[in-house]
Amino acid sequence: MATTFTTNYGFDKPAISDLNWGAIRNTNMDDVDAELFKPRIGQNAPTVGATTTLDLSVARVFVFTVTQITTIAFSNVPSTFPNGAVVPAVRILLKVTNGAAFAVTWPASIVWPNGDTDPLLTASGVDWIELHTVDGGTTWYGSVFHQKETGKLRCRAYRNATQAITSAVVTAVSYDTEDFDVGGMHDPAVNPTRFTIPAVGAGGCYVIHAHAVFAANATGIREIRIQKNGATDVAIHLNSVASAADGHYISVTAFINAPVAGDYFSANVRQVSGGNLNVGGGGAPAATDYFEIVQIR
Questions:
Q1: What is the pTM assigned to this prediction?
Q2: Of 100, 128, 150, which one is at a domain's C-terminal end?
């Protein structure tokens, strides 16, 4: 009977009657000893499609590039040892390239550290994800343990010209110039008053800051607020006016948790001077109206 080989490592399996069985077994035992001491973990490149299936019968490390909108799924998760005595603990690793280039849907069975919010992956780069289960895949515990930090969404825009604000009217500031926009959150030509959460990379936590400079005037009050979706105020700063000699500087900061794709934020101002007052036009973000947002996790 011919010699056969084990599936994964290719160890020899001679026929039981083979006179060389003893010597081959010794060699294979040395190989097994080496693998136990410094194991090599099998990897697999799953096919990325509408559903990307991670088949645990073939590997514990999965390496793939996100090339389209996809839903992650698991198959053949070990639920028992051969003797059926206990449920095994299973650990898998995922090397995901360009994970935020397209929307990725993760199984509901995964519990993530960030309030069970799906992880924020990198649009151009590599993320490593670790997943553990102790109940045959009913529940997974996942975390991102290596990530390219430049994947965080961020945008800063400002006014390079004045904007007239009518007295006693809440008005959204229109930002005509950008310092940077990582994630396509702002467009100076289309909805220039808005920072919009994109479909790719949505969720997480954000810090939003708005700053306005009103023209000098000693009458009434000045106000700036950050508003969500044109309806809900999330932060307001109201100031009395000290002097007509200088412009009036006012700012506000908000911390936003888990906005969804399509949510947008604007910086709205109000002044009560009895007439129009200009904001902006300083020509540089440090001295004029600016609006900035950064995703912190």
A1: 0.59
A2: 150
Nearest to 224 by CA among 190, 254, 262: 254
Please, are residues 212 and 236 in contact by the beta-carbon 8 Å criterion? no
d(CA 200, CA 260): 10
Write down which residue in 150, 178, 203 finishes a domain. 150
d(CA 33, CA 106): 37
Residue 24 host element (H or E): helix 21-37
Structure tokens at 245: 């000699």
Instruction: Give the span between the Cα atoms of 197 and 148, in whole angstroms.
Output: 20
Q: Which domain holds residue 198?
A: 152-295
Which parts of the chain sit beneath pLDDT 70?
Answer: 1, 18-22, 83-85, 114-116, 148-151, 200-202, 242-246, 281-287
The total number of structural domains that make up the chain:
3
Tell me, yes or no, whether 234 and 142 share the same domain: no
